Amino acid sequence: MYSFKPTSMILSPFAKRNALLSCYLVLFGLLAQAKAQNSTYFNPVLPGWHSDPSCAVVDDIFYCVTSTFISFPGLPIYASKDLIDWKLNGMYAATIRYHDGQFFVICQYLNAPEGNIGVVFKSSDPYSNSAWSDPVRFKPSNIDPDLFWDDDGKVYSVMAGITLQEIDLETGDLSQPPLSVWNGTGGTYPEGPHLYKKDNWYYLMIAEGGTELNHSITIARSRNINGPYDSYANNPILTARGTDGYFQTVGHGDLFQDQKGKWWGMCLSTRSGPDWTIYPMGREAVLFPATWDEDEWPILQQVEGRMNGWHLPPRSRDVAGTGPFNDDPDRYDFSLKSSIPANLVYWRVPRQGSFSISSNGLLVVPSRSNLTGVIPTSDSDDALSLNGRRGLSFIGRRQKHTIFDYTVDLSFSPKEIDQEAGVTIFLTQFNHVDLSLVLLQQDNTANPSLFLRLRAISGGSTVDSSLTPLPEPWGPGFLRFEIQAPNATLFTFSAMPASEPQKRITVGAASGSLLSGNTGPFTGSLVGIFATCNGAGNEDTGCPEGGNAYFQRWRYTGIAQYISNETAIPTQGEHSLST
Ligand SMILES: *[C@@H]1O[C@H](CO)[C@@H](O)[C@H](O)[C@H]1NC(C)=O
Ligand SMILES: *[C@@H]1O[C@H](CO)[C@@H](O)[C@H](O)[C@H]1NC(C)=O
Ligand SMILES: *[C@@H]1O[C@H](CO)[C@@H](O)[C@H](O)[C@H]1NC(C)=O
Ligand SMILES: *[C@@H]1O[C@H](CO)[C@@H](O)[C@H](O)[C@H]1NC(C)=O
Ligand SMILES: *[C@@H]1O[C@H](CO)[C@@H](O)[C@H](O)[C@H]1NC(C)=O
Ligand SMILES: *[C@@H]1O[C@H](CO)[C@@H](O)[C@H](O)[C@H]1NC(C)=O
């Protein structure tokens, strides 16, 4: 059923390291472990939509946060002991720092009615959602706030621009006016700044060039925190601009040291090649080694799929927290007493009661707004409701593998025309491809009947749509939907009776270009489920009765990662099948 033929296959880093290790163990016994060899690993280390990483290290754990824009819950925190296996935890952020026994996370809500709102959360236990403080609010002068503690105890925030302000973490007060400290080297959008102090220099590392093909990391330094900052002569210190690399848009990074004092960085990148047309996973987080000698400027290693750098800590899944590891497959049956898994995300904040676990699986109450909704022409309740701002009945997980297989079983007995439930690969409300079961009346004479509908939406318009009558003999049982990425540029959509998968029909296919850039330049694809009544009913009563959908047996299996336009790495099987 599934064929996957990459042009070359390489041993997984895990297998390779094990092979290497057993070699050394045989030859040199335990000496091998004491000897710090460089390690090989593959990027991205946080595949799938994980942009703007910021990281902090405490004891033997690396913590990173990434951006999530309007998906919910907001910015997740990942924890890792080995920089390769990342475990998901609750909470969200944009710069993460550890100071004096506390984690601090600073970020902001954009375009709130009262303008942008800056927030700082703190916690002594990053694994507990409830241990995070209520936010201290501040009025940001720009986006991408950083947090920096100077040796004299003063706390600063640099923001896009690049400006510097002292910040009071109790009150959220910022010193005024913001001090312009650097404008970068002339690229557009100097942003994503981080301030570091090393060898009595203040280093200001930023992103510039915009988050597209010109993206880059540049750096300046000063003996005085207020400047003047001198730009490094060899800027940018990291970029894929002008290269023919598979990993493009490299930029917006953060630097940190491991337990042995070796420097590393994380930044974002897009696996697109210079064509930059098909990259449905969007902006992913990559890891690179760095060298930063005393009094010298840091040297960051070029980002590629196969990396060789400082010796990595031993692989470990001994990390606290409740979420799955980033590379784990999903095997969710939504049986009673289970809860909604931590790696599933909503688009905007869902309405209360839209998702619940029932004896029949995950019960999804349809939203009046479908996944696209309407572009509002008024502020009426109905316009707000139908553009999805009053909640969308959608839940999904990141596409984290170039090649993957996703299936889910649906029980759905629509009573009213236009009631619909199904699966989607979703970049934004204006770019998604859906396969659903929908009740439609084809003409005035016929009775309403059930159809499999495949619909591709790009830029808010339907670019492709097909209706396939639900085969009569498939009966009333669970229907299984399947979305596959059989190669790096294509998605295929299939349906079958869950009890008779051999009756599988391929309903259609869609190009990955529909899920790349366009209305979602900052996001990456999610794969998941939805239920809607397509605008029927009204704002008070919601959808008409009878359109509830029940989902069971949710399976997402990563199959391979492309690390160049011609090389794929099979996804490791060691940790799969943890039901
Ligand atoms: C950055 O550019 C602005 C606008 O041109 C200017 O006012 C400011 O002085 C510049 N900042 C620095 C540090 O050069
Ligand atoms: C990259 O920068 C060059 C030179 O400034 C400019 O001509 C080009 O339009 C930029 N490309 C993108 C994708 O921003
Ligand atoms: C991969 O990319 C390289 C560099 O852009 C190019 O020369 C090569 O033809 C590409 N290979 C494939 C299979 O597209
Ligand atoms: C080990 O990795 C570091 C960081 O990337 C690099 O500077 C160094 O040259 C590497 N050493 C060897 C022997 O490859
Ligand atoms: C993916 O498969 C489709 C359909 O077979 C084909 O047209 C396309 O060229 C393939 N893409 C790649 C990158 O091989
Ligand atoms: C999606 O919802 C909008 C607003 O209710 C509606 O105009 C549109 O027809 C719906 N799409 C489908 C396929 O029913």
TrEMBL record:
Q: Where is this site: Important for catalytic activity, responsible for pKa modulation of the active site Glu and correct orientation of both the proton donor and substrate?
A: 144
**Superkingdom of this entry's organism?**
Eukaryota
Q: Where is the Beta-xylosidase C-terminal Concanavalin A-like domain?
A: 338-556
* Keyword Zinc in annotation: no
Signal peptide feature range: 1-36
- Which Gene3D superfamilies does the record cross-reference, listed alphabetically? 2.60.120.200, Glycosyl hydrolase domain, family 43
Tell me the keywords, alphabetical order.
Answer: Glycosidase, Hydrolase, Signal
Q: Which InterPro entries match?
A: ConA-like_dom_sf (IPR013320), GH43_C2 (IPR041542), Glyco_hydro_43 (IPR006710), Glyco_hydro_beta-prop_sf (IPR023296), Glycosyl_Hydrlase_43 (IPR051795)
One MF annotation (Gene Ontology) recorded for this entry: hydrolase activity, hydrolyzing O-glycosyl compounds
Q: Which GO terms describe its biological process?
A: carbohydrate metabolic process
Family to which this protein belongs: Belongs to the glycosyl hydrolase 43 family.
Q: What is this protein called?
A: Beta-xylosidase C-terminal Concanavalin A-like domain-containing protein
Task: Tell me the lineage of the source organism.
Answer: Eukaryota, Fungi, Dikarya, Ascomycota, Pezizomycotina
